[in-house]
Design a protein that fits this description.
alpha/beta, Pyruvate-ferredoxin Oxidoreductase, domain 3, globular
Amino acid sequence: MAGQDRYEVILAGAGGQGLVLAGMVLGEAAILEGKNVVQTVSYGIASRGGFSQAEVIIDRAEIIFQQVEKPDIVLAMTKEAFALHRDLASAGSRIFYDSTLLPHQEGPGLLGHPYTRTAADLGHSAGANIVALGTIAAATGLVRVESLVQAVNGRFAPAAAAVNIAALHAGAGLIAAGGRCEG
């Protein structure tokens, strides 16, 4: 997966988990690397707690169709999001899920990491989305962790940026501690 020219990504979970923000940070990091990006979002009527999904397409070439058709990567931050997207693993998608919230899942392409617990351990429980970005970047190479750091620095005030950069590095550290995910 590392080094491919195009990535289609779905970030799914509940409103309030920062998935739209995570999609924007991911897109900005890809732009900093000279790539083309499209992001779309969908969410239920209730912004907090209802279903929320951000789609990000990253490509070295021009992006013509602006919807994810065959996701390479799915981040599932709730049980419902995991259930909705689980079958995509059999089609070759890598499903990254929050093992703090879901029990261990068996199957090729199912990759659990403790995003919520890791964020809480950092004293920033709302940062599970950013922990997940660090993990996904380190595991797949869709963008460099350094590009995510640069995007965070450009988006947040210094104190908030520092907290989020720690979350990115903690997420990348989950891969460094356990090796590169091959699904």
